[in-house]
Task: structure prediction
Amino acid sequence: MQPAPGVVNDVPTIRVVDVYKEFGALAVLKGVSFDVRRGDVVSMLGASGSGKSTLLRCINYLETPTSGDILIGGESLGFIDAAGGSRKPRPLAAINRMRRDLGFVFQQFNLWPHMTVLGNVIEAPLRVRGLPRKDAADIAHDCLRRVHLADKADVYPARLSGGQQQRVAIARALAMQPKVMLFDEPTSSLDPELTDEVLSVMRELAGDGTTMIVVTHEMGFAREVSDRVLFLHNGLIEEDGAPAQMFGAPKSERFRQFISKYRQ
Amino acid sequence: MSESLKQILDVSIFWEYRTVLLRGLAVNFYVFGCSAMLALAIGLGAALLRVSRLWLFRCAGTLHVEIFRNAPDYVAVIWVHFVLPLLIGTVLHSRFEFNPFVSAIIALGLVYSGYFAETFRAGIEAVPAGHLEAARACGMSEGLILWRIILPQVVRRMLPESINQFISLFKATTIVSLVAVPDLMYQVSMITQQEMRPLPLYTGAALTYFLIILAAGSALRALSERWRMKIFS
Result:
């Protein structure tokens, strides 16, 4: 969905502002900034250890940035304005409210094994958003249709393949009707033949105009589906641009080396 | 078979006293039910302390577990019934007594809370961190996560072990006759004093306990396996 013509909408859906993240002496992110606009599909690439997963986890505060800020629709996720112009950390309950706008899909699916597929998808709309069961179920069934698993609603996750589990996880995140979907290597723990079914669901989401940030090693997806590619190296954005330009004529030597490994 | 041996082995006396014996058995179940609930509640509390991020809470939880898990239930019942009221009475400067039921339930509840705490803790720690992250990412509060994501998995994981603990607790309810709680063993010893026929009475009691525990234990194990299979297979 694009803003109505003539309306200038300058507020980025997500704004990452100078984020640093240190684990003890180890600096994983060293000042990362970028904006994501509504409808953008952003792929984050980088070797393991480059900080891309940590960055994604900082965006919904699964990791608290050591410094810097995340703005969701212009509002700071980590801080609230206190009296006297100072800022103080946002309480967890308020962070939880803002997290509803950020759907997160994990590498390991992380479905709740004691709930059916429908139970997993319905849980947050029911208990976090407080929707009536019928409305929550309608949303859940709709999301399951979008990932082509409408017929698995009453099955327990243990009975599903990895690809099906990941698609349920996508439906679970969609069910909160978030403004942005965050994907953390969603196909990295899948066998190659199961990767495609997940990627094709993600292509469809992108086609529907879903705002997405995807940490991935799938060069095909990054190149064909995303509007923009971020290449991270050593905790910094090394290169940032449209996929055609970056894959066609990479500016940084490191990105050139990085993609050459995937061409072999 | 001699006439005297026949008389000793005649278990019909157990049947003659069935009303009072059944009432005693009901007391066993009552004490079991109450102390089990108490043990589960305190055990869960202690387990949450033990997995807390705060050092002081973890120490308190560990202290609780070690004290009660290492206390013999026999000693605990006696101590709670005879010593604890003395302490409370001294503090309150008045006479204080526990109803024997209350002492028995508190003592058994506390002792078994030590065991249940460890079972709960193992169950909580076995829930993969990713399940909690997924819940946080959906905006679930920590309380909601405990209630909806952690505890339902913990209950399923701890069932096999807790069935054994419930059985031990049920067996332990037979010592409450020590403080004159009128359970089955208490009634049997009372009747024995009158009838002077310990063999049929105590054998009957042993068989009753044996059959109840065997039946309930097998049924619970079968049910819990069917339930667990759905999610852990």
In short: The CA atoms of residues 101 and 177 of chain A lie 7 Å apart. The interface with chain B takes residues 60, 62, 92-93, 96-100, 102-104, 106, 108, 110-114, 123-124, 127-128, 156-158, 169, 172-173, 176 of chain A (CB under 8 Å). The mean pLDDT of chain A is 92. Chain A has nine helices and twelve strands.
